[in-house]
Each structure stands twice: as structure tokens, then as C-alpha cells.
Amino acid sequence: ENTSKCGFASVHHIDKPSIPSYCLVAAVLNDQAKELKGSTKNKQALEYFDLALKIWPEYVNALVSRAMIYLNLDDVHSAEKDYTTLISVQPHDAVNHYNRAVLRMNRGNYKSAIPDLRNALILLPECSKYHSTKAEAELKCNNFRQAVEDADRALRLDKGNKDAYWVRSNARQRLGDSKGAIVDNRMYQAMGG
């Protein structure tokens, strides 16, 4: 019995592979594109990824790789579209939510990054980095109390998260807590910030 559209057959049907031929063709195109990726042939690699994704639009490996090439080419809009597709294909993968959030933050769109960061934290609540990144987005949106709360969570998980100290220092300063801001800034500086 096939467990997914392009999955493998169960042990009972091992003699009858259930991988549709279009998945195999897409995989070959994906491999050819990966050979070109990272070289001066990124545009040619994109063509192969595009072909693979026309054959199999939900091919996760091709989507991730193509998004990375788009980022290398500074085509942030196309990379964001691929991350959006990845989220629809794999809604329970925290990394896809986090990557789209960071991409949006890098474009200065902090407000739209916050829901992605919330989703990433629902899926992976023990990730200090995700908490400190959300704290930064909240800080940039002038949600200073929330920024402090998120930075506190990040630091409970990892006392060595210097980004959380930086965010909390700035948020505390904006809230009028100069003493707390100074302490956090010293911790940030001591960690090489």
C-alpha cells in the first residue's frame, strides 16, 4: 500500500515499486540542478528546478534548493513564494516557517514575520534562537513588553544567546528600565557583541 503520493510501497508490496515515473524524472532533474547549484550556473540550475517542479510541484528538496538559489541571486520575492509553498506542503516543519520569517525580516517586514515565528515556536518551543528572533521582530514593531518576554524565554533556554541580551537591552531601554538595559548590554558585549 502506498503511503503517500510519491512514497514507497509497504513491505508487503516490495516487489512492486510504487514510485510514479514523474517523481523519478523530477528527482533526476533535481539532481542535475544540484550539480549546477553554487557555481556560476545558478540560472541554468533554476531551469532544472523549474522543470522538476512543473513535473512535481510539491517536491520539497527542489523547493528548498530553488529558494536558496533565489536568495543567492537576491530574488527575495521568488524565494518567499517557495517558502510559502513549502509551508503549505509541510505545515508542521518549523524550519520553513522560521526561514520565511527571517526572509521577511531581512526585507524589513517584521509585522508579517511574527505569525511565522509564532508557528515555528508552536512546532519547536524549545528553540532559543526562534524566541530571540521573535523578540527582535517584536522590538522592531515597538512591542517592547512582548520583546522582553520573548527574550526572557530565549535566555531561559540558552543563557549564551547573545542576540536575546541585545534585544532585551533595547526593549528595556525603550520601556524606561535603564538599569536592566545596561546589565543586558554588558552581557551582550561580554559575549562578543
The radius of gyration over CA amounts to 21 Å
Low-confidence stretches: 1-17
SS element count, helices: 10
Instruction: Report the order of strands and helices.
Output: HHHHHHHHHH
Strand content: under 5%
For the termini, the CA-CA separation is: 54 Å
Tally of DSSP β-strands: 0
Largest sheet: none
The helicity comes to over 70%
Shape: elongated
Q: Would you tell me the structural class of the helices and strands?
A: mainly alpha
Q: Output mean pLDDT.
A: 86
Q: Describe it for me?
A:
It is elongated and about 60 Å long. The protein is an all-alpha fold and 193 residues long. Helix 7 packs parallel to helix 9. The longest helix is centred in the N-terminal third of the chain and has 16 residues, at 21-36. The protein contains ten helices and no strands. It has helices spanning 21-36, 42-55, 60-72, 76-89, 94-106, 110-123, 128-140, 144-157, 162-174, 178-190. 71% of the residues lie in helices and 0% in strands.
